[in-house]
Amino acid sequence: MSNTTTSPVGALNAAPSSRYYVKEHHPENGTLLGFWIYLMSDCLIFACLFATYAVLGRNYAGGPSGAQVFELPVVALNTSLLLLSSITYGFAMLEMQKKQVRNTMLWLAVTGILGACFIGFELSEFAHLIAEGNGPQRSGFLTSFFSLVGTHGLHVTFGIVWLITLMFQLGKHGVTPENKRRLMCLSMFWHFLDVVWIGVFTFVYLMGVLP
Length: 211
What we know:
The longest helix is centred in the C-terminal third of the chain and has 34 residues, at 140-173. 76% of the residues lie in helices and 0% in strands. It starts with 7 loop residues before the first helix and ends with a helix. By secondary structure, it is mainly α. The model is unreliable at 1-18 and 20-24 (pLDDT under 50). α2 (30-56) runs antiparallel to α6 (140-173) and α4 runs antiparallel to α7 (177-208). The chain has helices at 8-14, 30-56, 66-69, 72-97, 101-131, 140-173, 177-208. It is elongated.
């Protein structure tokens, strides 16, 4: 009678199904959930800036008021540019769903140009105010104004950089699931900035020109 022994190596070779392989898995909704959390934190930042403006917006310290420094027609034109960029971004998302890379990039480019024009008008407004001696150090009103509007402008600038990066990604890899997810996150960010700007235009500019 002979005893048959099986070595550990032989056992592994005999049962390949017992081996385990680690496969990287990215949760489908993980990125969107994380980005929603980021947007909520951004809401808190802008809420604090709006609250600061509500407290300091009438503290002129002998300086000019909003009615004296705001050029409402120019601001209205600038607002229309940003709102129009939200529409063009929507067209880009529609083309993305059709997997039309070229058309998607075209509408993204139009969106970026409109956003850049918005930033250009805003920088021109800031430069004009500072040149006339109405910088952020002039009064509590101007400090809160520059803080709120400037923070929004920085967000738009970051969104333009993000948009350009995504255009390179689309040109290199096409409409992949990863790029779809990134475009969706930027879409939420861009529309969020539009909503914030509507609040700025109403609360700061429109109410600022009232006596």
